[in-house]
Design brief:
Elements (H helix, E strand, L loop, with lengths): L1 H9 L26 E6 L3 E2 L2 E2 L3 E12 L5 E11 L6 E6 L11 H7 L5 H9 L2 E6 L15 H17 L11 E6 L1 H16 L5 E7 L5 H8 L6 H14 L9 H9 L5 H8 L4 H4 L8 H9 L11 E6 L7 H13 L4 E6 L3 H20 L10
Parallel strand pairs: 6-7, 6-8, 8-9, 9-10, 10-11
Antiparallel strand pairs: 1-4, 2-3, 4-5, 5-7
């Protein structure tokens, strides 16, 4: 059932949709602080046609965050309470890749029962944890999604934790143990949140951050997927970078490359994968964007590992990951350890998707111990 939901969710067709008034931010944004709730409305989270197991009250929210250049933006997301008892913790779920179009926003897919991470959400709720899940900048709200830009997704993941505790209807205690997890794109967002938390959100007292399938060096990811079945990832990443920083990557495209580049902004993941599968950069470009010093500088700005988290972290990766290179994820662990962080490194003998499924039980166990205040601290060796 989970795999069926996954396939359907990733293939949500790119159709023209009416503007969603809820997701359209006030212009200009009212004065406020990151994490302020701008709007909230009750929803019913679903897994296929059924209510999401373990879920109680739930809301989609529009909240204030910060983009990669330090400007205030509005982001959508979801807050869900467990069905039974008072929440034992608040866990932020940074979702993995859904696509670039607004209809792919995790909060929208969740209301349709099509979010492939529904099993992860249900597992958290059944453990008595409230969950706060961001949609990220530009996914569901006007504009293009800043895909794989950690300096945008990290704040979005931290600010929805603030927003969940400020949401009056949720009645969450301010001192509720708080953690964060994510895989793939979500792993990058969670790891960036861990790096940024001491300076950007010192009021968000995290007990632990678990990140898996971690893309830390976006140039290395592009080289791995170029010409392979997951080539869509490099196109989506280029769109995200251009949106976040105004870097004109389209100037390097051939007419065909430019057409396919912008068409990908209308698709969810499976559609993009089918359309762009086995594409190579060279036939679609007049020159390699990675040769542009400005592009390289922005990619370097979003490379993980430069700042050690002050919270224990768990990093997990598949030894045979076919999308995100193993070496660049291990380099983050090594860099953090060298800088004095508390980081645990675990691997599975699987590929990217297999690693996602295999990591869930270990992630839950590690987070549970961190939430209970027991010794599940990361360590370096």
């Amino acid at each position: 059932m989970v795999l069926v939901a996954c396939a359907v969710a990733l293939g949500v067709p790119a159709v023209a949709t009416a503007a969603d008034p809820f997701s359209t931010p006030p212009d200009p944004l009212p004065p406020g602080a990151p994490g302020d709730v701008l709007r909230a409305e009750p929803i019913v989270p679903r897994a296929l046609t059924f209510r999401l197991p373990g879920s109680g009250e739930a809301w989609r929210i529009l909240y204030r965050s910060t983009n990669a250049t330090g400007q205030a933006v509005a982001v959508t997301g979801t807050v869900i309470l467990p069905r039974r008892g008072t929440p034992r913790a608040l866990v932020g779920l940074a979702p993995g890749t859904q696509g670039m179009a607004d209809q792919c926003a995790p909060s929208r897919l969740l209301r349709q029962g099509l979010l492939y991470e529904g099993a992860a959400l249900a597992g958290m709720l059944e453990r008595g944890w409230a969950v706060a899940m961001t949609d990220y900048e530009g996914l569901g709200t006007p504009g293009v999604h800043t895909y794989m830009v950690g300096r945008s997704s990290g704040p979005a993941a931290l600010d929805i934790l603030r927003a969940a505790k400020r949401l009056p209807a949720a009645r969450l205690a301010s001192d509720l143990p708080t953690a964060l997890t994510g895989y793939s794109q979500g792993g990058q967002a969670a790891a960036w949140a861990a790096q940024l938390q001491p300076t950007y959100a010192p009021d968000v007292a995290l007990v632990g951050v678990a990140a898996g399938g971690l893309p830390s060096d976006l140039a290395a990811v592009q080289r791995q997927v170029d010409g392979g079945p997951w080539a869509a990832v490099m196109v989506m990443g280029a769109l995200g970078l251009e949106t976040a920083y105004g870097v004109d990557i389209d100037q390097y495209h051939t007419p065909r490359g430019s057409r396919e580049y912008f068409e990908s902004a209308r698709d969810c993941l499976l559609t993009s994968v089918v359309k762009m599968g086995f594409r190579r950069t060279k036939p679609l470009t007049t020159s390699d964007p990675l040769d542009d010093p400005l592009v390289r500088a922005r990619l370097e700005e979003n490379r993980l590992g430069g700042t050690p988290p002050q919270v224990p972290v768990l990093l997990q990766h598949g030894l045979h990951d076919d999308i995100i290179p193993l070496a660049q994820a291990r380099a983050v662990h090594n860099a953090w350890c060298a800088a004095g962080a508390s980081s645990r490194w675990r691997t599975t003998g699987l590929d990217h998707i297999g690693g996602f499924l295999a990591n869930l039980p270990r992630t839950f166990d590690w987070l549970r111990l961190r939430i209970e205040g027991k010794d599940a601290a990361g360590y370096c060796s």
